[in-house]
Amino acid sequence: MTTITRTSDALLRFAIRLDGVVVALLGVVMVAFAADISTLTGLPTAVEYGFGALNIAYGPLAFFLAARDEVKTTGLVLALANILMTVGMVALVASGVAGLTTTGNALALAIGVYTAAIGGLQYLGARRVS
Fold first, then answer.
1. Which own/partner pairs from 4-10 qualify as long-range (CB within 8 Å, at least 24 positions apart)?
2. What residue numbers bound the domain in which 37 lies?
3. What's the predicted TM-score (pTM) here?
4. pLDDT of amino acid 130
5. Is residue 54 domain-resident?
6. 2 lies in a domain?
7. Is residue 74 part of a domain?
8. Does residue 71 lie in a domain region?
9. CA dihedral of residues 60, 63, 64, 68 (deg, nearest 10)
10. How far apart are CA 65 and CA 51, in angstroms?
11. Average pLDDT value over all residues in the chain
12. Which of 48, 64, 85, 101 would you call most buried, defined as having the most Cβ atoms within 10 angstroms of its Cβ?
């Protein structure tokens, strides 16, 4: 008799869903307060609306992805995307290209910290899946 031991994918599914909830809630705030956030960050209001809408759309997508039978590859791709977002946020602040305010820079770096943390959790969850 052969026994197959499978490591749980619960951590990965949780990390993907958590990311979906956090990002979608951030999107709702961005859309609801786009003009105020635009003043704080230095980005145009249209950019705040656009990113907010994309963030809202990611919420249900994350739940769909977390519910798939095979989730390891998805988790690795999302972890990579989050790490790339971290690098992008740091590069955005370091380059000064976007003309962000001091608050905008702080928020961009905070997003970078979040994406590094959630990307790390997703990677850890994917590594646990056998």
1. 5/130, 6/130, 7/128, 7/129, 7/130, 8/128, 8/129, 9/71, 9/72, 9/125, 9/128, 9/129
2. 10-128
3. 0.90
4. 76
5. yes
6. no
7. yes
8. yes
9. 170
10. 20
11. 94
12. 48
